[in-house]
Specification:
It is built from 3 helices and 4 strands; from the N terminus they run βαββαβα. It is of the alpha/beta class and 127 residues long. The strands form 2 sheets. The protein has a two-stranded parallel ribbon. Strand 3, helix 2 and strand 4 form a beta-alpha-beta unit.
Length: 127
């Protein structure tokens, strides 16, 4: 956004934001959708290509304890998958971030991340 390489940013599942993050969101016109509003999100459907980044700490710690910053009240795995499926614009790339295996030694968070990778690959291939 700062370098003009992206023109739109939508963040789903934001629960907390510090003053610097809130200021940046205002400056760049970032759309933030709370976990409570995620089901009502209409998705993306248009010709412009999109890059999808899934931040695992947007999930509730019950589903993804293996992240650095636990914040109760996050998204469920189903809600993230539903949001990914609402992206009907061409996906040109994707990533999964914030996995911290030291905080989730049972592998649950890594398994959730792998599920998201599989879903995103399906979107890229079927796109």
């Amino acid at each position: 956004m700062e370098e003009g390489l992206a023109h739109r940013l939508e963040q789903i599942g934001i629960r907390t934001m510090n003053a610097v993050q809130a200021d940046a969101a205002r400056r760049f016109g970032t759309e933030t959708i709370s976990p409570e509003s995620s089901a009502a999100w209409q998705g993306l459907d248009g010709p412009d290509p999109v890059y999808v980044s899934i931040d695992l700490d947007a999930l509730d710690p019950a589903f993804a304890p293996g992240v650095s910053h636990h914040e109760p009240g996050g998204l469920t795995v189903r809600e993230v998958l539903a949001a990914v499926r609402k992206v009907r614009s061409p996906i040109v790339g994707a990533d999964i971030v914030e996995l911290n295996p030291d905080r989730g030694p049972d592998g649950r968070t890594a398994s959730v991340g792998a599920k998201f990778v599989k879903e995103l690959l399906a979107c890229l291939l079927n796109g």
